[in-house]
Amino acid sequence: MYDEERPYxxxxxxxxxxxxxxxxxxxxxxxxxxxxxxSAFAQEAAASYIxxxxxxxxxxxxxxxxxxxxxxxxxxxxxxxxRIVGMLSGAETSTFKLAxxxxxxxxxxxxxxxxxxxxWAGNWRTENIAKAEPVLGGRTVAYGDWEMISDLLAYDFDQxxxxxYDDIRALGEIRHFADFIASIWQVHPFREGNxxxxxxxxxxxxxxxxxxxxxxxxxxxxxxxxxxLVRASYSSIRDGIEENPAFIRAFFENIIIGAGNDIAxxxxxxxxxxxxxxxxxxH
Length: 283
What we know:
mainly alpha; globular; Fic-like fold; 12 helices; single chain; 2 domains
């Protein structure tokens, strides 16, 4: 009566070589946001994946088997890159849910077993954190208080679900999307791995609008992407400085509509606010 005898379809890996190349380049390039690069071994394994010799599951297994029992920054870079490829290449983009739990799921899948504390993966942080930002001359963004993470994210996601996208390629809607991504990044819900998680989430979310995951902007400008999020999140009443979303908006304008914003020429450094002699980011 309900057609229950009809079998389920399996969501297969995307077999297009260009797509595989793009997702690997994005996943490996994103490791730079935490000062990491993938190894020659990972690049060789990725070449087999890109050629179609095996799929995302085999790529992840190859990388994780290579580092079995090892916890190092190199293992983290390679394994997390493989996991990002898996998330951008099929099932996760088709089972997406616009809710804070999506962030927890992504973080858990990316970083399980790869962080200094096993309790960090997939769980909200339980302490307040700060990080000196070169783009701010050593100052730090005011991340969300750890006791308010759930409430802050609930508010951001409620606001996002209430927004109606009529055409994601319209400039106003792109800017709304960019502001949402910056807002949830500022919460910084995890102890480590926030930017890689948010970047992966953003691409999976964009896939819901038909924007294919994997982009050379994430590959080539991952540190710039993080600095743009910093500039969108930093303000100082004392110094008369307001949050500046222009950079992260330009980034997503390029991704979504190929706007051609010359981000390479943009100076993200917030001049005049250096702490001691902290050098600014070299762009």
